[in-house]
Write a structure and sequence with these properties.
Elements lengths: L4 E7 L3 H15 L2 E7 L1 H9 L6 E4 L1 H9 L9 E13 L10 H9 L3 E5 L2 H12 L3 H4 L3 E4 L2 H10 L4 E6 H9 L4 E6 L7 E8 L6 H11 L2 H9 L4
Parallel strand pairs: 1-2, 1-3, 5-6, 5-7
Antiparallel strand pairs: 3-9, 4-7, 4-8, 4-9
Helix pairs in contact: 1-10, 7-8
């Protein structure tokens, strides 16, 4: 395989694992890999608008749409893993009881703000607020931000009682960066949400052989161990 430059456009929730696997692929093959991260809806918007990439990492629903549009190589598509959602609190806040749905509701009703994003996990969080009868009760205390990292930053900046709802894998990224927040617990099992992620080579890649090889690396057995260590089941 000749040496290539490969661009990856990836959903941000799998950032740590994607970065590690891409770096290992670069070392092993000599190909140069650059990775850009965005929310899954932003990935969809950018690719649909004609932005070029060699490998795409995003949710299955968006990947299905790319397949319908002929924007990916179907044979290269594979499953990376699933990310669970968790409850995020300030680093100095006491860890609350989150053993079941009723305890979860009490924590949110006692929060100074409840923060989630406008991406895949935030869409689920908004539906959950409605389902549990919390939307009206919380009212203006609900804060919607653009990204997963913005959830963590908001919680860190609003001690002690702001509570975030976000993907556990993104919490781990921000802890690595020194953000002053922590994971209180995953959502209770009855209301847990799992977001899946796929990787595929883009049909328009000018480095298709290398792109397919990298997509395969993201979904390999070895990669699954890497992703598991970053919070992706």
């Amino acid at each position: 395989m000749s040496k290539s430059e490969i661009k990856v456009l990836s959903a941000g929730a799998v950032k740590r694992g994607v970065a590690q696997v891409a770096a290992e692929f670069e070392r092993a093959t000599g190909n140069r890999v650059t990775v850009e991260f965005a929310t899954a809806p932003e990935v969809e918007k950018r690719i649909s608008a004609g932005e070029s990439a060699d490998v795409i990492v995003t949710t299955p629903a968006i990947m299905d749409e790319f397949a319908r549009q002929g924007k990916i190589i179907a044979a290269s598509r594979g499953f990376i893993g699933r990310s669970r959602m968790g409850v995020i609190i300030h680093a100095d806040a006491p860890v609350p009881d989150l053993r079941d749905v009723e305890a979860f509701k009490r924590v949110l009703l006692g929060a100074s703000a409840v923060v989630y994003n406008s991406a895949s996990s935030g869409i689920y969080a908004a539906k959950l607020m409605q389902k549990l009868g919390l939307k009206e009760a919380l009212g203006s205390r609900i804060v919607i931000v653009d990204t997963g990292s913005a959830i963590m930053e908001y919680v860190a900046a609003h001690p002690p009682a702001a509570v975030g709802l976000g993907q556990i894998s993104e919490v781990m990224v921000m802890i690595d960066k020194g953000c002053r927040m922590k994971l209180a617990a995953p959502l209770p099992d009855e209301i847990q949400n799992m977001t899946s992620y796929n990787a595929a080579a883009a049909a328009g890649s000018t480095e298709l052989e290398a792109a397919c090889a990298l997509a395969a690396s993201f979904t390999s057995k070895a990669a699954k161990a890497v992703f598991a260590a970053t919070g992706i089941d």
